[in-house]
Amino acid sequence: MALTHTAVANAKPMAKAYKLSDTGGLYLQIKPTGYKCFKYDYRLNGERGTYTIGSYPEFSLKDAREEHRKAREMVAKGLPPITIKEERRLKQEKENKRFSYYMQQWLERKNLAPSTYEDLVIRIQKNLLPDLDKKPVDEYSTADLLKVLTKVSQRGARETARRLAGVLRQIFNDILILGLIENNPAANLAELLPAPDKLNKKNFAHITKPEELSYLLNQIDKGTARQDFVVTQALKLMPLLFLRPYNIRYLKWEYIDFETKMINLPASELKTRKPLQVPLAAQALAILQQLKPLTGQLEYVFIAARSSNGQPISETTCNRALQRIINPKTNKPFGAGFMTSHGFRHTASTFLNEMGFDPDVIELQLAHINKDRIRATYNKAQLMEKRVEMMQKWADYLDELKGTKNE
User: Fold this and answer.
1) Exposed e or buried b for every residue in 114-152, given b needs 16+ CB within 10 A?
2) Which pLDDT score, from 0 to 100, does residue 406 have?
3) What fold does the segment set 210-403 form as a domain?
4) Average pLDDT, the chain
């Protein structure tokens, strides 16, 4: 005889556990403690099994019968009823954990240099997250992902679109291994994207003419009323050190040795995964000494004015400051395409090579990964004396440019 709601509610504990049967192997078990639980006894492949549906009153008799129905369907398919709970768990996980969760898990395993990590996160946040956190990860098709990356490609960033296709392939492969999707929608995504235009590939915006560099340096020195002093000092230091923007922004006071006139960047801060020493010209030392009374008691040299937790200035802040510099020919801001914080590296490389400095010394100071084994061996000597000389002559040259009359 089938159970009733009243019978379930009124069932009292006894000295020993007992059960009240419903139909098809479903029953309510009552323990001496008063704990009540719905269970289902079944036979699969000649073996007996018991599937625990859930406790009462969390599961009502109606709920238990519905779960019992699903469990019997599983058994009819030759699958253990526990598969129901696993499917439910996976569904809940897919619903609660969107693409950004799996992206973060993937990033944490990559063990990237800080600058590389930051650049990758910015690319993902800008190009992927606005579209890929809108629904569960198993609801995205290859066409959906292609639509997202096509937007990136169509704005002229074909190389970025290709790189992000590789990122998606790896992240969705993780999701596939976890059993949350049946196939990887990004497996061959890169093949559907336009190839990068190598002929028109552009580097970071930078200056290659002395008169333009002269004007830029003078404008940086002047600063503006609305520009934070720390930002102005960061812009002044960039052409002198030509480090990657990340290494300028996240420069710590502990890295600076005023006695040896050297910045000692640890391997963990660089793409090459090798430590880098940066000789400080007198002009660079003067800038840092001006900043020391302002931020010297904090961790980072260039602290954002509005930062409440001592966070460094952003690359966007520096680039926008450069874009606001006035073009003397139009009396309007140069805007994008004139110079970027990363562009100082290209500018320094161009000018220093034209000035006749040893290419090995330049490359070593730029912390470029040298793929030439012979030159790499030669660079083990670090060429420090030549680097110190080059950095001071470079700073003196910039001073000369600032003293020349703009054409």
Assistant:
1) ebeebbbeebbeebbeebbeeebbeebebeebbebbeeb
2) 41
3) hpI Integrase; Chain A (1.10.443)
4) 85
